[in-house]
Amino acid sequence: MAEAYIVEAVRTPGGKRNGQFAEWHPADMAAEVLDALIDRTGIDATAVEDVILGCVTQVGEQAFAFARNAVLASKLPQSVPAVTIDRQCGSSQQAVQFAAQAIMSGTMDVVVAAGAESMTRVPMFSNMSFHAREGVGVGVGPVSGRIRARYGVEEFSQFAGAEMIAKKYGFDRETLNRFALESHRRAAAAIAAGAFDAEMVPLETGGILRSTDEGVRADATLEGIGSVKLLQEGGVISAANASQICDGASAALIVSERALKQHGLTPIARIVNMTVTAGDPVIMLEEPIPATRKALARAGMRIEDIDLYEVNEAFAPIPLAWLQAIGGDPAKLNVNGGAIALGHPLGASGTKLMATLIHALRARGKRYGLQTMCEGGGIANVTILEAL
């Protein structure tokens, strides 16, 4: 089978809600990472055959062919098509997998996978308004009565799923808070060491070029994290041990071996395995565990063969449960911090984590990386990469 190679992977810094990137239109933010791929690789922009862009909240400024608007705001010629996809938090990781499938099938040679989300300008859940339809009545939202009857729930909640996982795996609030503190410590250390420099696309705001993730708290303490109000009475999840609302964009250039030779490109990674699975939509966020097992089996690998893992920190119980169930090494997990410190810009997080994983592998002289993401509806993506 043909191989799919990653030539470059980049991301913007994360911006807090109403923070450093609040004035950036999301299409323009996405355009910046598209431009960075062209500038850094030197590829002829007309060679790009498609842009696949992940975005979760496709409404308002992220509506009306959002990916196409990102292309029109960029240096790419108007002849480059684009499509917006939604696999919830795994949207841009799925964009990578769709792009790689196009490459491996031989139907395309140069594809951009990307993601963008302005959670400031297009708030989470703002695409879930319900409207009355004349002669029909009032809509009930995306979860139909048939689905409610099947699962015995009124709504599916990621917050409830995180609480279920914490209870199932025996994690108390202090354990989650300690994990959150470590996320901030690792992220702060990574920033201080310049670990993100190779992947970063700075954005200008107010005449200042912003190149640092805004949500990282180098001065975080266990006491401070523990003082944050719980999301539900009697629970263990708080905003401090969950991912931060975030504005950001990210992208990767994925090409065939033929394109490497034709355009004189040097790959930084090879895609080894792409897996997506689905399970229980109620507990929902546990699916990275069976997805990882399937991916490793299909790749003929063991977890011991993987040098670094990126497991999205949507909520602290998710990576902790993954470690426990898979038997992973905590020292290999989210080595530069995760979404608790760096933010989780929904549709942008897939290629964001991939950029961080690839550059972390290369900086350490390591070979194999595994990335996985819990997603709404009980879905999970896993991608295994080889750094080159």
From TrEMBL:
Domain Thiolase N-terminal: 5-257
Protein name, entry field: Acetyl-CoA acetyltransferase
Keywords, comma-separated and alphabetical: Acyltransferase, Transferase
Top-level taxon of the source organism: Bacteria
NCBIfam families: AcCoA-C-Actrans (TIGR01930), PRK06504.1 (NF005077)
Family the entry assigns: Belongs to the thiolase-like superfamily. Thiolase family.
GO MF term (any one): acetyl-CoA C-acyltransferase activity
Keyword Acyltransferase carried by entry: yes
SUPFAM superfamilies with a match to the protein in the record: Thiolase-like (SSF53901)
